[in-house]
Amino acid sequence: MSDSNSCNSRHFSWLMKSCFPNTQQPPPHHPTPIPTTTTISSLPDDLLLECLSRVAHSSLPHLPLVCSRWAYLLDSPIFHLLRIRNHLVCFTLFVVSCSDGALLTASYRLENDNEWNISSLNYPFFENGFRVLAIGRRIYVIGRTVMLRCDTWTGKVVELHGPVNLRKKFAAAVVGGKIYVAGGSAGATAVEEYDPKSEKWRVFNGVRKSSGFGEWRRIKSPPLPAQVRLDSTVRFSCEAIGEKVVLVQVNGCIDDLLRRSGRPERGMKEGLVLVYDCVVGEWSRGVDLPEVIRRSACVCVEC
C-alpha cells in the first residue's frame, strides 16, 4: 500500500481536535441588540391621549400622580372630548349638604347606579349656607367667604377665595363658563363674576335687564299625593341631566303633611327623587336620598 493511501494518525488527531471548541479560548463577543420596544411615556401627546382616555373611571384619580405631563393631559379639553367619544362619560347627580361642620356629598348616576355613593369633607366654612355649581367636571361649593373646587375625576379639593361681598341666601349661576352670584348682601345690585381660568372675582355695579329667552310650557305634574298642600317646610331642588329633569326633595317630609291632614297615604318621607323624561313626557321615581343628606344643594356633572 502506497504512502498516499495510508492513514496518518497525526493528521487524523488534528482533524478531530478541530471539531471540538477550545475551552481556554474566550467566547466570541456578540453585540447586544438595542431593544425596539416603546414605552407609553415615549408616545406623542395625541397617541398618549388616546390611550389614557380609555382608562376606567375608577382609575382616573391615579393618572395625575404618574407625572406632571399626564396631569397636564388630563386637564386638556381633548381628553374630555375623547372620553365622550368613547362613551366613558355620563351625567352624574351630586348632592351636597352641611352637617356638624362637615360637608357630606352623595353621587348618583341615573343609568348606572342602584344606590347613592356617600363621602365627607371636613370644611366648617359652610354653616351659614352655600351654593353648588358645576363647570365641566369640577364642582364649586360657594360659601360666604370661602369657595371649594372639587375635581370629580381625581377627587382633589382646592380651597379658593369666596365672593368679595359677604353673602347669605344668594343666587348663583354658570354662564359662558363663568360663575355669577347676586343678592344676599347689603349691595343688592352688585353682581360678582368669577373666572375659573384667572381664579379671580370681579364686581359689576348694576344688573342688566333681561331680554327674554323663549316661552314657558306646562308639563305633567309630579306624582305627588293629590290635594296635598306643600308648605315652606318642604323644598325641592331641580336639576337638568341630559334630556331628563330631576326633582330632589332637599328639606321637609311629605308624610308629615299627609299625617297632619288625616290622609292615609305614606311612603314619601324625606329625600324623594323624581325623574322627568322630556322625550316621553313621563315622571318616574328614582332612588331616595340617603338619610344623612339633608338641606342639600344639587348639581349635575358630566364626568
UniProtKB/TrEMBL annotation:
Annotated F-box domain residues: 37-82
Pfam family, one: F-box
Classification via Gene3D superfamilies: 1.20.1280.50, Kelch-type beta propeller (2.120.10.80)
Entry-linked SMART domains: FBOX (SM00256)
InterPro entries for the chain: F-box-like_dom_sf, F-box/kelch-repeat_ARATH, F-box_dom, Kelch-typ_b-propeller, Kelch_1
PANTHER family linked to this entry: F-BOX/KELCH-REPEAT PROTEIN SKIP4, OS03G0415400 PROTEIN
Name listed for the protein in its UniProt record: F-box domain-containing protein
Organism, as annotated: Capsicum annuum
